[in-house]
Amino acid sequence: MSDLSTTDLAALAWFFICVLGYSALTRYGPLADTGIVRAINMRRLHWMQNMARRENRMVDVQVIAALSRGNGFFASTAILVTGALAALFGAADDVQTILQDFPHVARMTRAVWEIKVVFLMAIFIFAFFKFAWAFRLSHYTAIMLGATPIASEAEEQACLDHAARTARLAGLSGEHANAGLRAYYFGMAGLGWFIHPAVFAAAVTVVILVLYRREYHSRALRIISPDR
């Protein structure tokens, strides 16, 4: 880390401030009770309540399977990206020689190059763990769905309680998948660090603004949320 310049350290600090700050605001702060995540969780609850009243639940199983495949795809992609980044260690000199032909690319030592590659690897490893756990949770959700009894007058409340727990489990899977997608966004921003620390900091800021708009002021939120 001592090889990093002051601007590199400032950009890295800005990254962690933005990522951790936005995560705290959306999970525990004033943004926790609003936004598209909360709205879609309400829709999950309505979905599972309706599911509990149906005898044929094949459509619900197919939806869960589709969500599970999406999480598996992103988890596999994260592994491929991590492997590609690991391969850059062996080609560091060649890649740096190519980058030096670009006039606006910051010059860096091999140690700084490796730090930046490891940084990107850490982001995509984080994404892998998030998507892998979301993939597993979607399997648990399918099991919970299959265990849901058919609602009857005698057991209706117990059935609805089970449906609510299933919806919470599905929501937990969605939250981990959402965190994995955010990691992909920030991984794209991290590529800017290879150009210049200022580009990295600007890209992180743009990602935060895009995430905030899509999660709290998008047309999708207005469609999903009935109180908008």
Give your account of this protein's structure:
With 228 residues, this protein is mainly alpha-helical. The chain has one domain (6-224). The protein is built from 8 helices and no strands. It has helices spanning 6-27, 36-52, 58-87, 92-99, 110-146, 156-190, 197-216, 219-224. Helix 2 runs antiparallel to helix 6 (156-190), helix 5 packs antiparallel against helix 6 and helix 6 (156-190) runs antiparallel to helix 7 (197-216). It is elongated, with a radius of gyration of 22 Å. The protein starts with 5 loop residues before the first helix and ends with a helix. The model has no long low-confidence stretch (mean pLDDT 87).
Number of domains: 1
Secondary-structure-based class equals: mainly alpha
Shape: elongated
- Order of H and E elements: HHHHHHHH
In percent, how much strand structure appears in the residues? Answer: under 5%
**Overall radius of gyration:** 22 Å
**Distinct helical segment count:** 8
Largest sheet data:
none
Give the % helix: over 70%
Which labels suit this protein?
77% helix; 0% strand; single chain; mainly alpha; 228 residues; elongated
In a nutshell, what does this entry contain?
Helices cover 77% and strands 0% of the residues. It is mainly α and 228 residues long. The protein has one domain.
